[in-house]
Amino acid sequence: MTIAERLAELEAENALLREHVRMLADRVHELEARLAKDSHNSSKHPPATGSPARRRVCGRVCDGAAAKDRAGRLGTGARHYAW
Prior knowledge:
By secondary structure, the protein is mainly α. It is built from two helices and two strands; from the N terminus they run αββα. It is rod-shaped.
């Protein structure tokens, strides 16, 4: 293999690797943008962003079972409403 052939081979490999790095950098940028966008700064509702659906009851985030349990106790304190 001559020096010119080896140089051409390395330049072709370099071009492929540069393209691969560019694609990976684009993907990292896309993932970082998705990570930075959550339900607090997104126009989408929480289930649409991939986070589990949760309801706010009395200012705290609760799962559905706990909210149903509290909502069933009438007259034992503050009223709990699950919207």
